[in-house]
């Protein structure tokens, strides 16, 4: 009869923005965990996610969809010789930006000095 009864479905990934928003949401809600001491030191016991409990007892136990971490991040604002991270001292920042490139955030609340430069460039304009 000329009609088609086959239907093809395609799996699609979400947009890059949707994935980023999802991961950022998980990151913002991440909690530090420790291994629960349930009387076993076997590696299989430690590998079981149900043996993780929040470091802060007032927090809920993590679910399989929660993002968790074991170690605190280093303080990137200050110099650390052991890891050879130089901190943010001397970095260029945007004094009018409230975002990650803004001076208040990038300088870790230590205050900052501003320097104004006048730059003259040829624009190769035609009239």
UniProtKB/TrEMBL annotation:
Gene3D superfamilies membership: 3.30.2460.20
GO molecular function: cytokine activity; frizzled binding
GO CC term (a single one): extracellular space
An annotated GO BP: animal organ development
Residue span of region Disordered: 38-65
Keyword Secreted assigned: yes
InterPro entries (alphabetical): Wnt, Wnt_C
Subcellular locations according to the entry: Secreted, Extracellular space, Extracellular matrix
Chief location of this protein within or outside the cell: secreted
Keyword set includes Secreted: yes
Bias (Polar residues) ranges: 38-53
A Pfam family this chain is assigned to: wnt
Domain of life: Eukaryota
Record keywords: Developmental protein, Disulfide bond, Extracellular matrix, Lipoprotein, Secreted, Wnt signaling pathway
SMART domains found in the cross-reference section: WNT1
Function: Ligand for members of the frizzled family of seven transmembrane receptors.
PANTHER family, per the entry: PROTO-ONCOGENE WNT-1, WNT RELATED
Family assignment from sequence similarity: Belongs to the Wnt family.
Protein name per UniProt: Protein Wnt
Organism: Oncorhynchus sp.
Organism ancestry: Eukaryota, Metazoa, Chordata, Craniata, Vertebrata
């Amino acid at each position: 009869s000329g009609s088609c009864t086959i239907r093809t479905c395609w799996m699609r990934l979400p947009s890059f923005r949707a994935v980023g928003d999802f991961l950022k949401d998980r990151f913002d809600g991440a909690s530090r965990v420790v291994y629960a001491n349930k009387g076993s030191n076997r590696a299989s016991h430690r590998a079981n996610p149900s043996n993780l409990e929040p470091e802060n007892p007032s927090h809920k136990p993590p679910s399989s969809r929660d993002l968790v971490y074991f170690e605190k991040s280093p303080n990137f604002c200050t110099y650390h010789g052991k890891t050879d991270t130089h901190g943010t001292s001397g970095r260029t920042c945007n004094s009018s930006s409230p975002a990650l490139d803004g001076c208040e955030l990038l300088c870790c609340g230590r205050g900052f000095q501003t320097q104004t430069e006048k730059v003259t460039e040829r624009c190769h304009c035609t009239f």
